[in-house]
Amino acid sequence: MERVINFNAGPAALPLAALERARDELLDFAGTGMSVMEHSHRGKDYERVHDEAIALLREIAGIGDDTEVLFVQGGATQQFAQIPLNFLPDGGSADYIVHGAWGEKALSEAQAATKWSGGKVRVAATTVHDKQYTRVPAEAEIARDPQAAYLHVTSNETIHGVQFHELPKADAVPLVCDMSSDFLWRKTDFSPFSFVYAGAQKNVGPSGIVIVLAKKDFIARGRKDLPKIFQYRTVAENNSLYNTPPTFAIYLIRNVLDWIKKGGGLARIEEQNRQKAALIYGAIDANASFYVSPVEKASRSTMNVVFRLPSEELEARFLAEAKKLKMVGLKGHRSVGGIRASLYNAVSLEWTKTLVDFMRDFAKKA
Ligand SMILES: *Cc1c(COP(=O)(O)O)cnc(C)c1O
């Protein structure tokens, strides 16, 4: 068996140790004679895994008692709709910052939700220019509504490779953040956020599950006239076991979090992630007549490095030759084209160096 070098944007590479542990435990989990998938979600064997995943998250990310750690389904995309349904009251208004495709989607779903909620949605800032996004807005560009029910922001725009290195300041308006593609990549102070959500399949696990960090008092503000299954309080009151959760996905998240902890926690992961991004951007800037990053330097993403070559033909050749060296997942999103290297936690420094060497050689040869 030979594993490839995986730069996929999501679902993405998982740490080998987390997969090997799953393999070793697949047929006989904890000496129970069955896989973890075959256990009841109400049984103590599964519950131990569930609670361990939550405890590891609290420990690694430094989550306090005022905050719930939840597992919810439907992907980050479902949260785009569910957040306004819960937290945008009749007659209220919510602010959105848009600096890429995911922020656009969050905004559009919130607009659709207003038909039900009776509230309205405002764009507090957008950096769209010729249908492209190449930067995050500056603090001064954010036209905040001090009465807003919340301010929604996407910390990292996965498709455009545009990331907030310093997130907008929290004030009296609750800060809601889609952290899907840069969750747990560095030490983060989660205390300013009222609600953070992240699809697991970028940095912390498989698809089909979203991790939510939500302040208890914020959850309590949510509407109570929604079907129970759509209220975050239902998830919180039932330790994310109101109905059957994707148990295997949560089990894998447990494995990944354990790997992060044993590898030295977020401080160590951050150091490595910064090194990886610096290497790739270094290769782009060192061959500036060949590789072009469309993203302004201050907004360059450490997780998704997007760049162009002089022609689409060269880009196709770049992808084909990279593949010969077992590097996959480098094709940019269909909406923007070009190349995208996603450097999530499970992507090693060694893999990154292989890509950098290839980029240097390819630019020289072409
Ligand atoms: C991937 C992604 C999503 C969508 O996640 P789904 O699980 O497909 O719903 C939303 N926001 C961001 C920032 C993403 O990277």
From TrEMBL:
Binding residues for pyridoxal 5'-phosphate: 76-77, 102, 158, 178, 201, 243-244
Necessary cofactors: pyridoxal 5'-phosphate
Subcellular location: Cytoplasm
Pathway in which the depicted protein is active: Cofactor biosynthesis; pyridoxine 5'-phosphate biosynthesis; pyridoxine 5'-phosphate from D-erythrose 4-phosphate: step 3/5; Amino-acid biosynthesis; L-serine biosynthesis; L-serine from 3-phospho-D-glycerate: step 2/3
Enzyme type, top EC level: transferase
Enzyme Commission number, as recorded: 2.6.1.52
Cofactor, how bound (note): Binds 1 pyridoxal phosphate per subunit.
Binding site for L-glutamate: 42
Reaction equations catalysed: O-phospho-L-serine + 2-oxoglutarate = 3-phosphooxypyruvate + L-glutamate; 4-(phosphooxy)-L-threonine + 2-oxoglutarate = (R)-3-hydroxy-2-oxo-4-phosphooxybutanoate + L-glutamate
Database matches in Gene3D superfamilies: Aspartate Aminotransferase, domain 1, Type I PLP-dependent aspartate aminotransferase-like (Major domain)
GO molecular function, one term: O-phospho-L-serine:2-oxoglutarate aminotransferase activity
InterPro entries: Aminotrans_V_dom, Pser_aminoTfrase, PyrdxlP-dep_Trfase, PyrdxlP-dep_Trfase_major, PyrdxlP-dep_Trfase_small
Keyword field contains Protein biosynthesis: no
The UniProt record lists the keyword Cytoplasm: yes
Keywords of this entry: Amino-acid biosynthesis, Aminotransferase, Cytoplasm, Pyridoxal phosphate, Pyridoxine biosynthesis, Serine biosynthesis, Transferase
Domain (Aminotransferase class V): residue spans on this chain: 5-348
Recorded superkingdom: Bacteria
Residue positions where N6-(pyridoxal phosphate)lysine is found in the record: 202
UniProt similarity note: Belongs to the class-V pyridoxal-phosphate-dependent aminotransferase family. SerC subfamily.
Subunit structure: Homodimer.
Functional description taken from the UniProt entry: Catalyzes the reversible conversion of 3-phosphohydroxypyruvate to phosphoserine and of 3-hydroxy-2-oxo-4-phosphonooxybutanoate to phosphohydroxythreonine.
This protein's name: Phosphoserine aminotransferase
Organism listed in the record: Pendulispora albinea
